[in-house]
Amino acid sequence: MTTLTQRAPSQTCRTLTADDIESLAVGAWILGTGGGGDPYHKLLNMRILYAAGREVTLIDPMTLEDDAVIGVLSNMGAPLVGQERLADPEFALKPVRMMEEYMGRKFDAIMSLEIGGGNGVHPMLVAALTGYPVVDADTMGRAYPEAQMTSVAVAGLRCYPLAMADIRDNEIIIPRAASWKWMERISRKACTEIGSVAATCKAPRTGAEIKEHGVLYSVSNAIALGQKVREARAAHTDPIAAVLSAASGKLMFQGKVVDVERRATEGFLRGKAVIDGMNDFADQKMVVHFQNEFSVAYLDGEPVVMTPDLICLLDSVSGEGIGTDVLRFGQRVSVLALPAPGVFLTEKGIAAVGPRAFGFDLDFKSVFEGTQA
Question: Are strands 56-59 and 134-135 parallel, antiparallel or unpaired?
């Protein structure tokens, strides 16, 4: 996929068009692996902001000054709750201002915690309101459900402070935590108490930290992926094939959803989906487990794809990503595996986001050659 590393130097800082934002929403939803929140409502907000003359500037992370201070933004909580608590640009901005007040300085730029799902669009809302540039990077290259499941956590960078706000008048600052897992426990408990959805500003990062430990050019990659899907739809060609080609993925299964078990608990959406095979997969059955995002898929009782490989469920006709919160009986889906960022294929990365991190007693085995741990 096209990234800013392949652009001319004059384009390392560029204004995103309205069409780029449309493609970003499509690509981010695919990379969300079922989580990160549906980007649709945030896309609607971006359409309104762009119609009002606002715009977003995307900057190459390698142009950041080493001492630049970057705000790392996301929504936190259970995706199912996000269907009722709709996206609001001012809500997204609130923890940013809280963190700036706490630090005693403004941010130089902002970025997404995770490119997957609505969180890939989330910093665009803040950028459109404030004029802050958005860094072409994130810390996951997809979506993951917990604070310690990031490239900066794997690198052992500082996990605090954290700012959190809800739609009422509750504002929470966590000035310090003993570890990334403790930050996850404390912030998740707070998030659950205020309704299982919150806007957050994570521990600020320096330009040097992003250049060394960020998942670089993930915004451009998501835009390029979404553009390929939209082009396939317009040309009435196969969008699943477009995703596989653009993202170097593998088709793992196709079929119809016949059962979904889903429960919101402890600030997460947990469950599994059962899919009966169709086409080349007739007479086979796949079970896909999830904790906000898809974690492990079993084919006829055998594990065949697992995190950190990306497990993406897409509508077989449109190529649209399908979230764990909207899986339902009768959907015709294609199950794709996409390659994981290299940081999560290391020993520390697999410890943080491999199958055992989600409660599965499995040794990670990638479906992609050369990436087995």
Answer: parallel
